[in-house]
Amino acid sequence: MFYLKDYFALADFCCLSIWFVILRQTKTDFTGYGNNAAAANCSGCEVHKGFYRTYESVRPQVQAAVLSFQAQHASASLVCTGHSLGAAVAQHAALDLTISLGLRVNTLYNFGQPRTGNAAFSDYFDASLSNRTFRVTHHKVLLNVGLLL
Amino acid sequence: MGMLSVALRVVCVATAVLALTYDEQEATLNVQWVRFFFRAQMIYNSITLQLTSFPDSHARQQAGAAYCCGTLGNGCVKWNCPSCHDSVEAVAVSNVSTNANGFVGYDSDHDTIIVSFSGTDPLSIRNWIDDISTVIKSVCHVLFERLFCSS
């Protein structure tokens, strides 16, 4: 059976090899949220700069909105979710709400999340949220499967 | 699966053709096109494959609803996009310079506060560069086994 989608992976690969030479690596030290390294206490942690900065840019809005909804609905559970880049941002959001505000994030559903940080950051995240995190990926999406390496 | 899906499949094939006929001397022109086609394809692939294959429709809906925010539309403010459902009150969350888009909402049916972010916005170069630099890194590792890649 001829499936057009089987050839998409080839297209991915061709395009990426072009971009490989054009774009630079983006990585930065993880210094906590709101630049509060003491609260984070995560030595040796490095994160993808873009996702980190994207979350930092909306952090005050997210915190204010979550606290406002919590004040109105005290018994409500808290769920973070997102797709692709949004999944990486949602991971930062869940971690931030946990360590900065001391909230309990009940579940984190991530769809097609790319790699967000290094092994130290991963361990740090796992320590607080791993048993409540569900990461959904598809084996044909290079963005996700390639990041196991 | 409609016109959009067919159109995206066509541009995906065009991507492969363009990439295979890549010519150093016409790099600037080609890369412009490849960038556009690749993004259309990546978004098509990942949204359809990942968001449609997950059984928990509630979480899936909420992740999908974030795509109504920002430059893709103003659905998060009006809460009228297809993945939105009636029992949610939401506050849109966004930043113009980083193109972060999402919402914080309260779903009274499930008594749940939802924090949701959208992925790559097809109209945002900034988002796209964040995504692609991650892809580049993984491909780099596959091809060169960390020889030329920072760890």
Core attributes:
heterodimer; A: about 150 residues; alpha/beta; Rossmann fold; 3-stranded parallel beta sheet; two-stranded antiparallel ribbon; 6 helices; 5 strands; globular; disordered N terminus; disordered C terminus; B: about 150 residues; alpha+beta; 5 helices; 3 strands
Number of domains of chain A: 1
Class per helix and strand makeup of chain B: alpha+beta
What's the overall average pLDDT of chain A, rounded?
A: 78
CATH class of chain A: Alpha Beta
Taking the alpha carbons of the first and last residues of chain A, their distance comes to 31 Å
Q: Give a count of the beta strands of chain B, DSSP E runs of length 2 or more.
A: 3
Let me know the largest β-sheet of chain B: 3 strands, antiparallel
Largest interface: A-B, 76 and 75 residues
The best one-word shape of chain B is globular
- Would you list the SSEs of chain A in sequence order as H and E? HEHEHEHEHEH
Strands of the widest sheet of chain B, in order across it, are 1-2-3
Mean pLDDT of chain B: 64
How many helical stretches of chain B?
5
